[in-house]
Design a protein that fits this description.
56% of the residues lie in helices and 4% in strands. The chain is mostly helical. A hairpin with a 5-residue loop joins β2 and β3. The protein is flat and about 90 Å long. The mean pLDDT is 79.
Length: 325
């Protein structure tokens, strides 16, 4: 790939050296899957590879836009000059101009990717979210009332799937640490005697006879006290209801990129990138430079300074009607 003479060195280095290739990402996912006791099927491996290839294509396309589009020459010139990372007072550990530029370039690329994602995803209305959290709180409270002190008011372990129980026993608790117990998967002949996840120990009874004791995985959490305190479902539902009520209240005043459901994807992109990164990084709107960057990234020649200013305007507050007597 041939970049321009004005392309920031940090962007070129990122393109050639700092991206994780598809095979490396796939191997990393497989290592994580092995640690959690999962296995990637051929289908899931294919889907993962396709997703990684898609992400790599999108990332490559963005880097090429940022590094070769003619409009970006003036944009990079302005941004490298304006980046606030080189302020000695605020960033004393990043006083090297090249380091400042490197961090700015990489974080700009990452925030552009995030803003593109935000512009494409579905954004819910504030009032809808408030009502949803209130409904969750009410439903949890009603279930709490009928569940409390019933036979079903027990620990959540009761509803763990066999796969989850096995993973906890084998990977987190490690039976060998439980007073001589151990996992039993296969004997020396290679024949499976017990199911994966079951635990056992060999012992001697009061008459001196040898015996083997084993506990099926589904009974493990009833036999052993895993933690000092095991909350029952009613306690969990009580906490869930309280959390949902708090979220409903927080949602009323939390700052949002999207306040109006009619906001266009272009406006969402502009607001996200501006509020999450741009203003803090460069200290001023730089409307002309910002508009040029948005035109390049979104492939939209119609974006102007006025487009940016309109997108950044706060939503108009509804006027309260006058009381009539």
């Amino acid at each position: 790939m041939k970049f321009k003479a004005w392309t920031p060195r940090a962007l070129i280095d990122y393109y050639y050296a700092e991206r994780v290739d598809i095979d490396g990402s796939l191997e990393g996912c497989e290592r994580i899957a092995e640690k959690t006791g999962e296995k990637l099927t051929e289908k899931s491996r294919k889907e993962l590879r396709e997703q990684l290839e898609k992400e790599k294509r999108e990332e490559t396309a963005l880097i090429l836009k940022l590094g070769t589009h003619d409009e970006m020459q003036s944009v990079w010139k302005e941004l490298c000059k304006r980046s606030k990372r080189c302020e000695q007072v605020k960033y004393p550990y990043r006083d090297d101009p090249e380091t400042c530029e490197q961090f700015m370039v990489l974080e700009l690329e990452a925030n552009i990717t995030s803003a593109v994602y935000e512009s494409k995803r579905n954004h819910t209305k504030r009032q809808d979210d408030i009502e949803k959290y209130k409904s969750i709180a009410d439903a949890a409270h009603e279930l709490l009332k009928v569940l409390y002190n019933s036979r079903l008011d027990t620990t959540v372990y009761r509803w763990y799937s066999p796969e989850v129980k096995n993973a906890i026993i084998e990977n987190d608790l490690i039976p060998e640490k439980l007073s001589g117990y151990a996992s039993c998967i296969k004997d020396e002949d290679g024949i499976t005697r017990l199911r994966k996840g079951d635990i056992f120990r060999e012992d001697i009874d009061e008459y001196g006879w040898g015996r083997a004791e084993y506990i099926p995985s589904e009974m493990f959490f009833e036999r052993f006290v895993i933690t000092a305190h095991r909350p029952v479902m009613s306690e969990i539902l009580k906490n869930l209801a309280e959390d949902a009520k708090e979220l409903a209240e927080e949602t009323k005043t939390e700052p949002r990129i999207v306040e109006r459901s009619s906001l266009s994807p272009t406006s969402i992109f502009i607001r996200t990138l501006y509020e999450e990164f741009w203003l803090n990084e460069f200290g001023s709107p730089l409307y002309r430079t910002f508009a040029a960057l948005c035109r390049v990234v979104l492939d939209d020649p119609e974006i102007t300074v006025d487009t940016v200013k309109d997108a950044l305007k706060p939503p108009k507050k509804k006027k309260k009607g006058k009381n009539r007597t």
